[in-house]
Amino acid sequence: MFSNSAAIEEQVTKADLVIGAVLLAGAAAPKLVTRDMITNMVPGSVVADVAIDQGGCFETSKATTHSDPTYIIDDVVHYCVANMPGAVPRTSSYALNNATLPYALRLANHGWKAALKKDSGFLNGLNVHKGEITCEAVSVAHGMNFSAPEKLL
What we know:
Strand content: 5-15%
Number of strands: 6
Mean pLDDT: 92
Helix content: 25-40%
CATH class of the largest domain: Alpha Beta
CATH superfamily of the largest domain: NAD(P)-binding Rossmann-like Domain
Structural class: alpha/beta
Number of helices: 7
Order of helices and strands: HEHEEEHHHEEHH
CATH architecture of the largest domain: 3-Layer(aba) Sandwich
Strand order of the largest sheet: 1-2-4-3
Low-confidence stretches: none
């Protein structure tokens, strides 16, 4: 399947469950599933918007909580719980630690400035330095000037 609006619409309107998981680092998630697509889904279908922490990728998404996780629009059940990993805090903490510990160790062993110069992944993760926004998506989202991070170090 090609990722275009026609293909998305075709699959969404036939699906019993659609999980939306879109991430544009530092930016709001694009609305890939429209209200019309939701309206044309089979009644009783479910949409789960994992991108809700970035604004959601369904036009009909609004953040919910673990205590009140669902709502219905056009006979389609919406699950849009913000901070989904919060439902399993111990497990998600272990997963986050396992994913981030190697980076913390590199920062500790090399120092932040050397780590940024040595590793483009670290450099790409820099958002603000000396008051300058160094992440282009963040600068666009906030309508502020962008400064290339490699020029500031």
